[in-house]
Structure formats: C-alpha cells, structure tokens
C-alpha cells in the first residue's frame, strides 16, 4: 500500500531525513521501533531546553508563543497576531507552516517594520554544519509564509565566559554569529529535498539503506539496534575507528572483521581486535609490578553544566562532585575512603582538600584515564594555596588505561578499552548491571537532580547512596583489575625464569 494522506514534516524530521531517509521513514511510520532515549541523550535534550529559556532573557521585551506542539492551529494563529502587531519586537517559539512543513522559530527579532532576523539557539560551543541545515529549513518555511527575513544568526555559548557571581552576563555568556550568506545559499536546495523526502514517505516500504557510519553522524540514530539486529557478531562496524576505514572495507566487499585481508591498513587497536587473541607486550610484567604501597585507586565523578553555577567556573567545564579511593596496603588489607557533595554549593575546594588528605604523600595512585589528571590540574589552578600539594599528587598517578592500551589486549574487550568493557571481560562478577547508576552520564544526571531539584530527604538519601555505590564500584573494580593483571604479569615472570633455568 502507499500513503496518500498529506504528510506534514517538521524541522526535526527534515534534519533526520538529511542524515538518513530510512530513519525519517521509521520516525514517521513506525516510531515504536526506536530504542529508548539513554540518560546522556536525555540530559543533552534537557540542557538544550534550559539554554533556550535562558537565551530569551537577552531579549527582555520578547513574547513567548505558549501554545504547545499539540496545539498547532492555535500556535499558528497566535504567531500571526504577533507578527502583525507592530509593537511586538521579538517573538519566541513562533509557529510557521508552508506547504506542509511546520517549524517553531527560537527567536524572531523585528528589524524594521515588516523585516525580521531569525536566531536559532543552540547549547553547543560553536557553529556546526547541522545548524546551517536547521536554519535553512526554517528560512524555506518562513519566507514561503511571507515573513521578510533579512538576517540569520546562531546563538551559542561562549566557553571563555567566566562567571563572576550574581546575575549572568548574557552578553558575554552567548555569542550570536551571523550566518545570513551561508544559510541563504543552503536554503536554495531545501524545497527539492523536502519533496524528495515526501516521495520516499509515500512508498509502502522504507528505503533500502545499509547501516554504516552515517548512522552516528551528526547524531546517533535511535533505530540503530533495529537496523543492525541481523548483522554478524564480527561485523566490520564493530571495529573502533574512522568512517573511511569502513568505506574502504565495504568497497572490497568485506562485511566481517575476519574477512579483512592481511596487509590492510588498520590501527593498532583494530589489528588486535582482528587478531582476536590475548596479547601481552614484553614490558607488561615489569610495569605491572612497579607500584609502590600503599596503592590508592582513585576515581572522580563530575558534572559539566552548560550554565556556570559558581563564581570562577565556565560553560562546560568539569566540576568534580565526588571521589572514591580504595587503598591497598602491602599486607593485603584494603580501606575505602570517599567524598560526595550532596548540596547545591561549589564543592571544588572541599574536593581538593579531601583528596590531599586521603592520598597522603606516599604510594602509587592508580587511575583509569586522563580524567583525574585533568581535574587535579584544574583544582590546582583554581586554588593556588593548594597547588603544590595537588601537583605532587599528579606526579604519583599511574594510569591503568594507558598501560592496557599499550601493553595488553583481551578478545573479550571487543575493541573497547573503557573500564565498562575491560572490567567485565576480565572480572565478570564486577560488571555494572546490578547498579542503578551505571555510567558517568547517569551519575551526572542523578547528582543534578539530588543537588538542585530539591528532592525530599528519603529521595536525596537514595540518590546519594546510588552515587556512592557507582563511584566505589569504579575504584574497587580498578583494584580487582590490577590484581588480575598482576597475576598475569607474575605468571609471565615465572615462565621466563623457568625458561632461563632450563
């Protein structure tokens, strides 16, 4: 069957269609096939909404079209009234429709009488190609609906803005970049693309488009699981790496990792995934036995608010809010120490002082990734009186991620060196499936809810417990992982010694 009813498109549907018309088809006809929105994506969406609301404050005389997306007719009428009212200088969330395409404009600023400037608000720190397409489809609709547009701008966050306390300096927080020329050039193609999308949507079946790198650019497609459910376990797109690698493999008719011929240009990690064997470097044994007791296992959790909440902070700069430290002494005893800020206050100085206290001045500090180093350096910059002590801590860091990256690989890593992949591969009982908070993105969301949304005491206590459990799992996981790797290193040393004796 074909679809004969009029098909209304929107700005978001148009952008989906640019990424993949199969995605667009599913969004219109079978949206139930989409995967669930993960906490990280939901947090990004919520952040975008918050940024949009704050951006409006820069235009104090603006009027918001309050009718929702479910009240399209009312929103269109209200927008028309505001456009025709010469006393209206700025319209927020104005609704416009042209030839079956509906958009809501973030900010429409009157320039002179009946001429306007369209401003799109984004929570990003710079202009991206997708933003040009976003403005271009709005230009198509607004110009078609009779709005005389003389300018197009993108309003985004200025990551160099340092919050000094008190009211936000909105002029400094936001940058508005003029994109008029590039948007008008791009808008010339929009009408044709919309018609092509509608033609595809009228077909009885979705277009035949194979999943590949485009499924993750510019955004992860919610239909990825559906489109890849029949792909083999060793499908080439499970390799880490650039899109060009996959294109080159596809051009040779290669679908699985095992089919990749010898001599094909692969990265080190890709080659290890192809070899599918446990690999250990000659230096591994000495490195794993180089720790100095007491061995600390340190992990920070942080949040990265778009709007800087405390004096001295900037947009999207990480703010540490908790840490966990599992301390192993030479006799095998293990102690656990931890910190969590549970209130909406700047936690950085408390974090810095408590870290100095927990790690003392002796012993290796085991971490997993450069994250802890970056946080300690940022704390040293923020608190000069603590700088020397914090820099001494940095000198003691022992990055288990870098060691694994350079000296060890297991086929059960499946190409990922994240601790979420490495730990379950080598220590299955230390996976994260039993925890309510299972990754850093979820931790950030839960912390924000606990600290800033004023839950009751019982709910606050539950959230704090979940955050402590998650952070502790990371550091206990590091300790257990280090033991497993040290056992492998010891076995190698013993084997080498026996071979030398023989």
Number of strands: 14
Question: Main β-sheet: number of strands, strand sense, barrel status?
Answer: 7 strands, mixed
CATH homologous superfamily of the largest domain, by name?
A: Ribonuclease H-like superfamily/Ribonuclease H
Oligomeric organization of the protein chains: single chain
- Class by alpha and beta content: alpha/beta
Query: How much β-strand is present in the residues?
Result: 15-25%
Q: Would you tell me which CATH topology of the largest domain applies?
A: Nucleotidyltransferase, domain 5
Per DSSP, the total helix count is 19
Task: Name the average pLDDT.
Answer: 93
CATH hierarchy, class of the largest domain: Alpha Beta
Q: Evaluate the radius of gyration.
A: 27 Å
Amino- and carboxy-terminal Cα gap: 78 Å
Q: Quickly give the CATH architecture of the largest domain.
A: 2-Layer Sandwich
Number of domains: 3
Please state the overall shape, judged from the principal axes of the Cα atoms: globular
Helix content: 40-55%
Enumerate the spans where pLDDT stays under 50 for 5 or more consecutive residues.
497-502
Q: What is the topology?
A:
Elements: E1 9-10, H1 11-19, H2 21-29, H3 39-55, E2 63-64, H4 72-84, E3 90-98, E4 101-112, E5 115-121, H5 129-144, E6 148-157, H6 170-173, E7 174-178, H7 180-187, H8 190-201, H9 224-228, H10 243-251, H11 268-275, E8 279-280, H12 284-288, E9 295-303, E10 319-328, E11 334-340, H13 348-359, E12 365-367, H14 371-382, H15 387-395, E13 397-399, H16 400-407, E14 408-409, H17 419-426, H18 440-452, H19 457-501
Parallel strand pairs: 1-4, 2-3, 5-6, 9-12, 12-13
Antiparallel strand pairs: 3-4, 4-5, 6-7, 8-14, 9-10, 10-11
